[in-house]
Each structure stands twice: as structure tokens, then as C-alpha cells.
Amino acid sequence: MTSQLPAPGVPGLFSGSVPPGIYRLPVTETPAHAAAEAADAGWRAARLHLDGIGDKTAFLDRCAADLDFPGWFGHNWDALADCLTDLSWWRKDGEPRGYLLVAEDWDAFHKAAPETASVARTILTDAVEYWTGQQSPMAVLLA
Fold first, then answer.
1. CA separation for the pair 65, 38 (Å, rounded)
2. Any idea what the Cα angle at residue 27 is, between residues 130 and 136, rounded to 5°?
3. Concatenated DSSP letters for 62-121?
4. CA gap 68, 81 in Å, rounded
5. pLDDT value, residue 92
6. Cα separations (Å) of 53 from 83, 87, 108?
């Protein structure tokens, strides 16, 4: 179960008043606005578009494209975990204050591929936990 983003909402992630985690994007927010707020706060944001994704291969391909994964991405679960805990290619312009991943159309993806979504959720959770102990935290918003 994914929890709702507590007050003060999206800005709280960037100020540190809301701990990093995986949360539902409030219905009052749009993915584009959340990503823009992240950029304004010095965070690196990415939007993962999951519309029409119905299996593992399509999910991993979409991650590679939308998250701009490096060429060494191996298109498997271990490689996804490696990419989400490396993020060196996202730091080309310096160290961001944090990382935000907005996974759009998560519910449709989960309905179309529940086992794939479950594994993906576990990997995202592990990545958030990894970055929590680092200088730049990671948060995931499911939209």
C-alpha cells in the first residue's frame, strides 16, 4: 500500500519536512508541476510514462527511454536496481539536492501487469532506501 503524501505535500519533500519515500501524487498536483517544483528546489526530476505498459520488457524499455539510462543498462531487474542506485549520468551538471521520480499512470500499469509492477515497486523502494542514507535523497510519486 502506498501512503498519501503528508502535508505540506510536494514542497515538503524538497524542504525535508516530508521524509523521502514512495507516495501517491495528490490529485491537486500534476506530474509536470511536481517536476517543475523539484527543479526549482535543485532536485533532478524525471517523469516515467507508464501508459500502455503491460509487461516487464515494455516497462524496462520505457525506464531506459524516459529516465535516460546509460548504454550499459542491461534491460533486466538487476540492471534497473543498479541504474537507480548509481545515477551518475544524472549528475552531469553537478550534485542535485535530491532525486524525484514521477511514475505516471501507475494504477493502469499495475492493473495491466501486477507481477511486474510489484517487482518494480520493490526495486523503487530499495532505491529510495539507498538514497535516504546519501547526501541527495530520492522520492517517488505515483500518479
1. 20
2. 20
3. HHHHHTT--TT--SSHHHHHHHHHH-GGGGTTS--S-EEEEEETHHHHHHH-HHHHHHHH
4. 15
5. 72
6. 20, 23, 8
Enter the C-alpha cell of residue 70.
546509460
Could you tell me the pTM of the whole model?
Answer: 0.95
The per-residue pLDDT for range 78-88, each reduced to its tens digit, is 999 999 999 98
Place of cell 517544483: 37
* Angle at the Cα of 30 from the Cα atoms of 28 and 34, rounded to 5 degrees: 105
Q: Can you tell me which residue has the cell 503491460?
A: 54
Across the chain, what does the average pLDDT equal?
Answer: 95
Q: Is beta strand 44-49 parallel, antiparallel or unpaired with respect to 22-24?
A: unpaired
Burial grade of 8 (CB within 10 A; 0-12, 13-18, 19 or more): exposed
